[in-house]
Amino acid sequence: MSSRFAFQRGLVWLRNDLRIQDNTALYHAARSCAQVAAIFIACPQTWRSHDEGDPVVSFRLACLRELQQSLAERHIPLYFLELQKFAQVPRAMVQIAQKLKIDALFANAEYPLNERRRDSDVREALKKIDVPIEYCTDRTLLPPGAVKTGSGDAYKVFTPFKHTFIEQCGGTDFAPLPQPRTMEEDDNWPSWIEVRGEHNLVQTIPAQLPGYHAVPEKKGELLGWKPGEKAAAKRLREFREDIDGYEDERDYPAIDATSRLSPYLNCGAISIRQCAHMALTLNNGQWAGGSDGISCWLSELIWREFYTHLLVAFPQLSKHKPFKPETDKVPWSYDQDKFRHWCDGKTGVPIVDAAMRQLNQTGWMHNRLRMVVASFLSKNLLIDWRWGERYFMQHLLDADFAANNGGWQWAASTGTDAAPYFRVFNPYSQSKKFDRHGEFIRDFVPELRELGDDEIHCPPPSQNYPPPICDVGQSRKHAIEVFAALK
């Protein structure tokens, strides 16, 4: 072994960090090891139990195939292993480390409860064969637990978290880490190995997994999104040109004014540091102040950080529990018919229906509309927010558990820093304010295209479009009464 390196053979365990640029675990492995390989372990049974749906899994696999090509150019083989459950990973990883003669394992930390338990079990299993593992901070800008109140507790409210976060970041510009070096060619990496009792370790990425349907690619895109690190970098460059207008235009769904980076951030085709670095560089290192558009977008990145930090501080969030335990006493409705109308975009409320159809057709929904449809489900229909949270996880390309859970609990007034229970979005006023001329509605609710700008938000009775499934005013009043009774 060269004296340059601490280890001869290192293995990088890839998860939702599918890139070579600014990948902390990959960077440290390349600096510490003479030779490096990578591995991705799919656990479709566990993923399904976590409500991850066809869109996010198909996009993940497509990004993985793109990454495999980039790694191959650097003589870093990428192995793929299909297991069923997280519980199988520790035993399999020991076999793999032994058969590939691995001296050290590197991975970027993940934060939902089951993922942390899996990673702890892997550490203990590898310790028995003297293979160290390094879990790196990569999905967040600061490690969860690093931002504390004066008394040492986790923040429960966003604004003070944001202030302390910015203070701790100081003058850090979060410059991205370089790509790993190109390795010397090594014929000692086998094309496959047998893993006892499991699927074999191979260098082929499948198009689909058991229990999942592959989302078909059209012209290299999935649901209109091009997978991979290069596509993510291109989208970041494009958004860079428009970011100054973000605050003024981000709430209008007919305008392409949001970053549209969330699917790439979720699978790790781009890093949170790359995003923050771009914005901070443009804003002269300022998190607040300077360009209103840039500081507004940076605040959105801190919201993402906040929700991830909460997962570690409050494990009940990973157990389908509300942050506010008293809200578990809400007499939620479990009306299957109304829920199905909401899912299918057939509620009779145009902006809600347009948003849900956007989700079903593209695997993505405009952020303003996520709040509108979540409020409609959890307040106007009083349907358990967990039904909506699950549906989003199953249909979003950017199905990030922390952000999705945080957003739903915010809208349902069950979470930390949640909307006050008396805040109920009026879908009609939201529609008139943010889709004034009905452009977005016409795109996704074609049966209303012929209506005028005034009628399209609250259409007259028609054979082509259903009547509203609830009275927005009366249902709002009822929801407020229900939540007030909890006090």
TrEMBL record:
<keyword id="KW-0274">FAD</keyword>
<feature type="binding site">
    <location>
        <position position="246"/>
    </location>
    <ligand>
        <name>FAD</name>
    </ligand>
</feature>
<feature type="binding site">
    <location>
        <begin position="398"/>
        <end position="400"/>
    </location>
    <ligand>
        <name>FAD</name>
    </ligand>
</feature>
<dbReference type="GO" id="GO:0000719">
    <property type="term" value="P:photoreactive repair"/>
</dbReference>
<dbReference type="GO" id="GO:0009416">
    <property type="term" value="P:response to light stimulus"/>
</dbReference>
<dbReference type="InterPro" id="IPR036155">
    <property type="entry name" value="Crypto/Photolyase_N_sf"/>
</dbReference>
<protein>
    <recommendedName>
        <fullName>Deoxyribodipyrimidine photo-lyase</fullName>
        <ecNumber>4.1.99.3</ecNumber>
    </recommendedName>
</protein>
<keyword id="KW-0157">Chromophore</keyword>
<feature type="site" description="Electron transfer via tryptophanyl radical">
    <location>
        <position position="332"/>
    </location>
</feature>
<dbReference type="Pfam" id="PF00875">
    <property type="entry name" value="DNA_photolyase"/>
</dbReference>
<dbReference type="InterPro" id="IPR014729">
    <property type="entry name" value="Rossmann-like_a/b/a_fold"/>
</dbReference>
<feature type="binding site">
    <location>
        <begin position="258"/>
        <end position="262"/>
    </location>
    <ligand>
        <name>FAD</name>
    </ligand>
</feature>
<comment type="similarity">
    <text>Belongs to the DNA photolyase class-1 family.</text>
</comment>
<feature type="binding site">
    <location>
        <position position="297"/>
    </location>
    <ligand>
        <name>FAD</name>
    </ligand>
</feature>
<dbReference type="GO" id="GO:0003677">
    <property type="term" value="F:DNA binding"/>
</dbReference>
<dbReference type="Pfam" id="PF03441">
    <property type="entry name" value="FAD_binding_7"/>
</dbReference>
<dbReference type="InterPro" id="IPR036134">
    <property type="entry name" value="Crypto/Photolyase_FAD-like_sf"/>
</dbReference>
<dbReference type="InterPro" id="IPR018394">
    <property type="entry name" value="DNA_photolyase_1_CS_C"/>
</dbReference>
<dbReference type="InterPro" id="IPR002081">
    <property type="entry name" value="Cryptochrome/DNA_photolyase_1"/>
</dbReference>
<dbReference type="GO" id="GO:0003904">
    <property type="term" value="F:deoxyribodipyrimidine photo-lyase activity"/>
</dbReference>
<comment type="function">
    <text>Involved in repair of UV radiation-induced DNA damage. Catalyzes the light-dependent monomerization (300-600 nm) of cyclobutyl pyrimidine dimers (in cis-syn configuration), which are formed between adjacent bases on the same DNA strand upon exposure to ultraviolet radiation.</text>
</comment>
<feature type="site" description="Electron transfer via tryptophanyl radical">
    <location>
        <position position="385"/>
    </location>
</feature>
<keyword id="KW-0285">Flavoprotein</keyword>
<dbReference type="GO" id="GO:0071949">
    <property type="term" value="F:FAD binding"/>
</dbReference>
<feature type="site" description="Electron transfer via tryptophanyl radical">
    <location>
        <position position="408"/>
    </location>
</feature>
<feature type="binding site">
    <location>
        <begin position="300"/>
        <end position="307"/>
    </location>
    <ligand>
        <name>FAD</name>
    </ligand>
</feature>
<comment type="similarity">
    <text>Belongs to the DNA photolyase family.</text>
</comment>
<feature type="domain" description="Photolyase/cryptochrome alpha/beta">
    <location>
        <begin position="8"/>
        <end position="141"/>
    </location>
</feature>
<keyword id="KW-0456">Lyase</keyword>
<dbReference type="InterPro" id="IPR006050">
    <property type="entry name" value="DNA_photolyase_N"/>
</dbReference>
<dbReference type="InterPro" id="IPR005101">
    <property type="entry name" value="Cryptochr/Photolyase_FAD-bd"/>
</dbReference>
